[in-house]
UniProtKB/TrEMBL annotation:
NCBIfam families given in the database record: 2A51
Family indicated by similarity: Belongs to the chromate ion transporter (CHR) (TC 2.A.51) family.
Cellular location(s): Cell membrane
Keywords from the UniProt entry: Cell membrane, Membrane, Transmembrane, Transmembrane helix
Topology relative to the membrane: Multi-pass membrane protein
Calcium found in the keyword field: no
Regions that span the bilayer: 74-96, 108-126, 138-171, 191-213, 225-243, 278-311, 323-341
InterPro entries the UniProt entry points to: Chr_Tranpt_l_chain (IPR014047), Chromate_transpt (IPR003370)
Protein name: Chromate efflux transporter
Amino acid sequence: MRRLWEIFLVSFKLGCTSFGGPTAHLGYFQNEYVQKRKWLSDNDYSQLVALSQFLPGPASSQVGMGVGLLRGGLFGSIVSFLGFTLPSVLLLMAFAYFSTQTEMEMGWIHGLKLVAVAIVAQAIFDMSKKLIPSIRHFIIALLALAVVLLWIHPLAQVTAIIVASFIGYQFFKKTIEKDDSKETVVPISKTTGVCFLVLFAILLIGLPVTSPLIQNEWFTMIEKFYLSGALVFGGGHVVLPLLETQFVQSGLMSSSDFLAGYGMTQAVPGPLFTFASYIGMVIAGVPGAIIATVAIFLPAFLLIVGAMPFWLALNRFAGLRGAMAGTNAAVVGILAAAFIHPIVTQTIQNGLDIVIAAVFLWCLMRWKIQPYLLVLAGICVGIVCY
């Protein structure tokens, strides 16, 4: 119990102070868990990061779950997740409550939307440098962008990812070097890992099949958030198009509320997936926020726990590494499509919007301004200019 409490307090501190997105979170984790507390070695940590990048889901949250698993078993993984996630969940729930209970100035909301334009643009740029190293990768990204923009359907993103994984399997499996580092001892059995992976697959297939039959609003919410969490590759920003499809295009919430919440998510520490807490709070209050948070993070938990006993074996399969390379390229195209619509098309209204968004982007890329500071600036600019 003492160890679990220690895991919670350390992860909670990280949840309160980890600004800057998934990549920055991994830096905070490395400093706290490896250098300062020595809970695991540099090699173990690098393998854990590699595994989280391989799996769908929020990479930094999965690394935190993995550290908790290595430190305190299954319960350690759960309390690590709770500590890291709780601060941003509470902040976004509070924002959603006050934004729906009070009359907000439209200029303030518009300022947050312009911040979202800059932040997503930077995410696309940073991801493309890492995930599109060749013309073949670029073609996959371009095809994924075209599919998502031209085929307005909830299955468009999933189809693009599946097709890209097959292309990557065929063309990239001989170009990805494998990692021959020493296998890490995981405190759960492979049998337990299989059970978690099977449960992940059952929910992934079963929820969409049974949801239309049950026709319950809470069950439908679980299905939408679970699928969004299960199909995200490439980081927290990529959840944006999936959630937009599930909740804006379906009419469950307005595009204005959606983009305002996404902009505010950049101002709080912790994982970007807690954007789901805001959406759940807007749609169904506190119960909705709790259900949304659990449902969107559940696939990440099931996958990281299920895969950790097998992570070295996964790394040995060149075909899987190639499929992931193709998937990552498609992710860039999907995020670019979400950037074009709805972010740009529903935010940029005139030349002033273009100038302000460009200045925000310059601040992020040239001066490395922290996102939460940019959000404050966006609120002020929105109030003054609109």
